[in-house]
Specification:
Tumour Suppressor Smad4, Rossmann fold, 4 domains, six-stranded antiparallel β-sheet, 19 helices, 38% helix, binds adenosine-5'-triphosphate, nucleotide-binding, SMAD_FHA_dom_sf, transmembrane helix, transport
């Protein structure tokens, strides 16, 4: 049973908590006068009749009754002074009403409204010591459990007589009165401190707090989204306003293209490009997304798991990326076991993910998201593709999660079979029309039908009328917000944390590579086979005759480019859904790309060595190089640099496209450019010559030709006409400086391509499912 609770902190810092249900009345009067008021506050700053509260269908409305000191809704910069002429204003779960002088904090009375299933008494921690600490570890003065809380999250101490809160470099940050604390902030009496799902009250040199985080509530106010420009402009979300309370299990339903996913992406903060406001426990979600995102879990439609890892290993790497960096190995181990129990997959922890069934994979994706203990959980069609039994079990598990793990769960679904398990359903109609929000029974009563499927049909027939009917029925004032400029507050991370994440990513990628033995074998065998094939077609006069040597070196260079491109072209796009989800959490893209590149660097080295050594070994000709007596080392280095540049080029393509198929379709085009503009097949002039400067093949062949001293080799015709002149080409100038220049350019291309791939991967945040 959900209770509507009002916590009152008077001017002296005394806290009292009342259940609004105890009055068994719809209308409650608040004020100083005992003879008239239901909720009596004896502070002098409170008027005889301060305001009126209206309780209706689990909702709370408030009206200020022309009080002397007024009532503010909210603290901090987003607060609003309520006046009688505003009429009844809805107060949402975790909203704060404030009576009194905002400048003189002692002259304030706070009213905290919350809706909760179970009630926990407020604890009190006096600031008796110089500094008190708040964090996850039990050694803190205030211990707040939860994997998202840092071991020591923040400190409160006194500096020159003032009380100061200092964020101890926590991952998920601290809000005071809805504003992010960067470094230190002076605390004032009755400031509200928020750390993830925990609310703490600073009062008269002490702190009130609760150790169980409460479910996160969500207020969606007038969310509207338009796409396209000019005549192609269309509205895909139309003034959606609704409330979701803490620990509710909510389904967004509606026909195909009704805007369900668009709504979920907006209210989860993952696509902030909309008009209107979304408040998460009273805090602007878009404005504070960087800080709130760690309270939010998001399971996209595609699974966010790696097929070639065991379930436990997958969870281990996800935990290393998502949980605070000070989490101990034993804590990670414990948390993995906890989430496996939550999703009923303990016995499958050692199973490779590729061997799990569809339903189990969905649970595995949910487990990944549960690791960081998100309090607000979004799932996009989690039941799609599941059989009816598995679907029902999953819905029951989600309901259990909402109830037992204090989570607010919002899911998009098409099916109506198990919606009775949800606390609320949100019906969307074509054009993003908001056609209903309430429980299943209310929906049936509202649309006068026994079957939810009929509601689908009614909405599809006339969405506008359904939207109007529901809007009129709600009869409440819309709080329309304008989409102001939103600048997410960047969360600074230390270089050390970035490096640690890079190590975890590299370890995960290494493991994925080694577990995919078939692919690894293909990648390693490929250069050996190509070397053998090159030997088969090689002329016996190679390294003696100019033409045969030149074409063979060109083939060698192209082989290197192909090998590199094939290594990397699918590496990013094939895991795009996972990367997007991790990027929205904590993933650093440079670390991600580099974690792949370090392994590709080594793999490319082995491949280049195999290709060059086997080919030159089979040819059996030893020649002096530019730097050493034997040119093999120099040839190998050139091929390696060629492979690396091609790997980086592959990363660029892979970061730009959204699927492996598209990447493979683009590969021939890239190869053709390398062939045509290398300057070997055709004499290039003008634009062609200019393009050749940007191809890997040109610099690769130039270096190989210089090392092989092409200019000093005889032309074919010179066999018969020894007097024929062979003009030296600047292209193949056999000089140290020239070779180093070519190597340098190949290296530079690699670096530039890596940077471009990191930058273009940032667009991943805008990916739709
Ligand atoms: N960025 C965009 N540009 C243009 N149109 C868009 C964009 N995003 C969504 N739409 C359109 O908005 C409508 C709603 O899309 P959305 O994916 O939210 O629907 P849905 O209800 O989740 O559909 P389904 O059940 O089929 O997945 C669709 O017609 C879609 O084509």
């Amino acid at each position: 049973m959900r209770e509507q609770i009002l916590t009152i902190i008077d001017t002296n810092g005394k806290l009292s908590e009342i259940s609004l249900g105890q009055y068994q009345k719809q209308k409650l009067v608040l004020g100083r006068d005992e003879s008239i008021c239901d909720i009596v506050m004896t502070d002098a700053i409170v008027s005889k009749i301060q305001g009126t509260m209206l309780l209706e269908n689990g909702r709370l409305m408030y009206q200020d009754e022309d009080s002397r000191n007024g009532t503010f809704l909210g603290l901090g910069s987003g607060r609003r002074l309520l006046a009688k002429q505003d009429g009844m204003v809805e107060v949402y779960d975790k909203d704060i009403l404030c009576i009194g002088n905002l400048q003189q904090s002692r002259n304030r009375v706070l009213l905290l409204y919350s809706v909760s299933e179970k009630r926990e008494v407020w604890k009190w921690k006096p600031l008796s010591r110089e500094v008190i600490t708040i964090g996850r570890d039990s050694s803190n003065d205030i211990c707040l459990p939860g994997p998202g809380i840092s071991r020591v999250h923040c400190r409160i101490g006194s500096i020159q007589g003032a009380c100061v809160l200092e964020d101890s470099g926590s991952v998920n940050g601290v809000l005071v009165n809805g504003e992010r604390v960067t470094g230190r902030r002076k605390l004032q009496d009755k400031d509200v401190i928020q750390i993830l799902g925990f609310q703490l009250l600073f009062c008269q040199n002490g702190i009130y707090y609760k150790t169980a985080p409460e479910g996160i509530s969500l207020q969606v106010r007038d969310v509207t989204k338009e796409v396209g420009k000019g005549s192609k402009k269309k509205r895909i979300l139309n003034h959606v306003s609704c409330e979701i309370e803490g620990n509710e299990f909510v389904a967004i339903i509606g026909g195909s293209g009704a805007g369900k996913t668009t709504l979920m992406n907006a209210i989860s903060g993952f696509e902030p490009d909309f008009a209107g406001k979304v408040y998460c426990n009273g805090t602007d979600l878009v404005e504070h997304f960087q800080m709130l995102k760690n309270m939010i879990g998001f399971v996209p439609q595609q699974d966010i798991i790696y097929e070639n890892l065991t379930l436990k290993k997958m969870l281990y790497y996800a935990a290393k990326i998502r949980m605070p960096k000070d989490t101990r190995a034993s804590e990670i181990e414990k948390r993995i076991l906890e989430v496996l129990q939550m999703v009923d997959l303990v016995e499958h922890q050692k199973t490779y993910i590729r061997k799990l069934s569809g339903g189990q994979k969905k649970r595995a994706s949910i487990a990944v998201e549960l690791l960081a203990d998100p309090k607000l959980f979004f799932l996009d069609e989690p039941t799609s593709g599941l059989d009816p039994g598995t679907e029902k079990n999953l819905m029951i598990s989600l309901k259990k999660l909402a109830r037992q793990q204090n989570k607010t769960i919002i899911m998009v679904t098409h099916t109506t079979a198990n919606l009775h398990l949800c606390d609320k359903i949100i019906f969307m109609g074509p054009g993003g029309r908001f056609c209903f929000c309430g429980n299943v029974e209310e929906a049936k009563a509202f649309y006068q039908t026994d079957d939810l499927v009929n509601i689908y049909n009614m909405i599809a027939e006339d969405p506008e009328a359904c939207e109007r009917k529901y809007r009129n029925a709600r009869q409440r004032e819309k709080n329309s917000g304008t989409a102001g400029e939103r600048k997410p507050i960047p969360v600074k991370r230390s270089k050390n944390a970035r490096f640690q994440q890079f190590l975890v990513l590299a370890q995960r990628y290494g493991e994925l590579m080694f577990h995919d033995t078939q692919r690894l074998l293909v990648l390693l065998l490929q250069p050996c086979l190509i070397a053998a094939l090159l030997y088969v077609v090689a002329d016996k006069d190679i390294f003696k005759i100019y033409e045969s040597t030149k074409s063979m070196l060109f083939a060698l260079s192209c082989s290197g480019i192909w090998i590199g491109l094939f290594n990397s072209i699918q590496e990013i796009c094939k895991e795009r859904t996972i990367v997007k989800r991790e990027y929205m959490a904590n993933l650093r893209l440079p670390g991600y790309v580099m974690s792949k590149f370090v392994f590709q660097f080594a793999l490319g080295g082995i491949q280049a060595a195999a290709l060059t050594m086997i080919f030159l070994g089979l040819i059996g000709k030893k020649r002096a190089g530019i730097f050493f007596n034997n040119f093999t080392m120099e040839m190998f280095l050139t091929v390696w640099l060629t492979v690396l540049a091609a790997i980086a080029l592959g990363f660029v393509l892979s970061a730009m496209v959204r699927s492996g198929d598209k990447a493979m379709a683009a590969a021939p085009f890239v190869l053709i450019i390398q062939l045509l503009f290398s300057g070997i097949l055709f004499q290039l002039k003008g634009a062609g010559k200019l393009i050749s400067y940007f191809t890997v093949s040109r610099w690769s062949v130039e270096a190989l030709g210089s090392i092989a001293k092409l200019n000093r080799l005889d032309l074919k015709l010179q066999k018969d006409y020894p007097m024929l002149e062979h003009e030296a080409e600047a292209f193949f100038k056999a000089a140290k400086g020239h070779v180093v220049q070519c190597w340098g350019i190949l290296l530079l291309m690699t670096v530039v391509c890596l940077v471009v791939s990191m930058i273009s991967l940032r667009r991943i945040a805008k990916d739709r499912r």
